[in-house]
Design a protein that fits this description.
Protein name: RNA polymerase sigma factor
Pfam families: DUF6596, Sigma70_r2, Sigma70_r4_2
Keywords: DNA-binding, Sigma factor, Transcription, Transcription regulation
Strand content: under 5%
Organism: Pseudolysinimonas kribbensis
Largest sheet: none
Shape: globular
Family: Belongs to the sigma-70 factor family. ECF subfamily.
């Protein structure tokens, strides 16, 4: 096998998997009725692609090729395991027909393969964190390191959580089928958490080279729009859509021509997408019109709306943002919320007011393996003129950062200390 052809084929397989994996696994899960089997079949098809594509070339429709190979392997496996000849023929025939029959059905409660997969995987037999971790692996195509970063836990913990979730589904003999609309409410929290996590990874990648994974973020927005059509009066679905639209409005201003990050204080707001801002504000108004109040996603959307309202960074209403973070901390407490609250306080009342909040977070230990806390602490210490301490914190943050672009940015800040006045970076991970 030609080495260059092998490398090219490996790159093609990786690219196709990144783009098509959710739909491939969703199709296989729908046809086989088994989540773990669907994932195994997809991986087997990838292995066959690595053997076949260097020799025969990449097919015109690689996603369909992988799906067809995986279906064929499922047929072969069922034939081997089946004990009755009648079952052999029925399963082999039905497997090739069921996907088309599904698509031809006159109505489906959830009109999107990937969203159906998310609802199905967020089964109440699993703990919420297991629902999200398992679904992120398949729907987002995220690796264990990326999911671990989202949960602020170690990679082995996430791997064990995903394995345990699969075993739980198997032990409970959970059918892999689309839930009835009457069951949506108990799964909605997990679905929203999955969509938010996929968007967050797209907005600010935790690993790899790129600062933004636009494909992930756009897919999360698309799925959330579909979800809002299904539950148009659900405040948190509307809040999540508003948040995503408002945050995505900054995509065009968040990187320079070389792909390096441009943080919020330095962004050219003329490059913000005004139509996305209008859609986000519209979703927030629709949420408020339900009369059911803002939840965690709605409050985060309100924070993003405050940023969108400021023509310049210096005009940001930080006092309003502090109040919104205080409300968010009461209904959805967590270390990242507390960290962002401290950032807002540092901007509204000065860095000295925020430093004790950061010290409390450090003492709590929940962010000890994340770059976020030392990055913010480094910025605050720099603004207080404590340059040596600030540099040490920024270097520690760079060491903890999994994303190469973020790491370079933090190293550059550490090196620049003492060469120019320190300034706030907008350390909120959504900035």
């Amino acid at each position: 096998m030609d080495a260059r052809a092998s490398v090219a084929a490996s790159g093609a397989v990786a690219a196709v998997w990144r783009i098509e994996s959710a739909r491939i696994v969703a199709t296989l899960a729908r046809v086989t009725g088994d989540f773990a089997l669907a994932e195994d079949l997809a991986q087997d098809a990838l292995a066959e692609a690595l053997q076949t594509w260097p020799r025969d070339g990449v097919p015109d429709n690689p996603g369909a090729w992988l799906t067809a190979v995986a279906k064929r392997r499922a047929i072969d496996g069922w034939r081997r395991r089946a004990r009755l000849e009648e079952r052999h023929a029925t399963l082999a025939r039905d497997l090739t027909e069921r996907a088309d029959q599904w698509e031809q059905a006159p109505w489906q409660p959830i009109p999107d393969d990937v969203l159906r997969l998310i609802f199905t995987a967020c089964h109440p037999v699993l703990a919420p964190e297991a629902q999200v971790a398992l679904t992120l692996r398949v729907v987002g195509g995220l690796g264990s390191d990326e999911i671990a970063a989202a949960f602020l836990v170690s990679v082995p913990t996430i791997q064990a959580r995903i394995t345990r979730a699969k075993k739980t589904l198997s032990a409970a003999q959970v059918p892999f089928e689309v839930p009835d609309p009457s069951e949506w409410a108990e799964r909605l929290g997990g679905v929203l958490a999955v969509l938010y996590s996929v968007f967050t990874e797209g907005y600010a990648a935790t690993s790899g080279e790129g600062w933004v994974r636009d494909d992930l973020a756009r897919e999360a927005i698309r799925l959330t729009r579909v979800l809002v059509q299904l539950v148009p009066r659900e405040p948190e679905a509307l809040g999540l859509l508003a948040l995503m639209e408002l945050q995505s409005s900054r995509f065009g201003a968040r990187t320079d021509a070389a792909g390096e990050p441009i943080l919020l204080p330095d962004q050219d707001r003329r490059r913000w997408d005004r139509s996305a801002i209008a859609r986000g504000r519209g979703a927030l108004r629709t949420l408020d019109a339900t009369g059911r109040g803002r939840g965690a996603y709605g409050l985060q959307a309100a924070i993003a709306a405050v940023h969108a309202a400021a023509a310049r960074y210096e005009e940001t209403d930080w006092e309003r943002i502090v109040l919104l973070y205080e409300a968010l901390g009461r209904i959805a407490p967590g270390p990242v919320v507390a960290l962002n609250h401290a950032v807002a306080v540092s901007m509204a009342s000065g860095p000295a007011a925020a430093l004790p909040m950061l010290e409390d977070l450090a003492a709590g230990g929940m962010l000890r393996d994340s770059h976020l806390l030392p990055a913010v602490r480094g910025e605050v210490l720099a603004r207080l003129g404590r340059t040596d301490e600030a540099r040490a914190e920024l270097l520690r943050a760079a060491d903890l950062a999994g994303n190469a672009t973020r790491r370079r940015s933090l190293l550059a800040k550490a090196l620049a200390l003492g060469q120019r006045p320190g300034g706030a970076s907008g350390a909120d991970p959504k900035l």
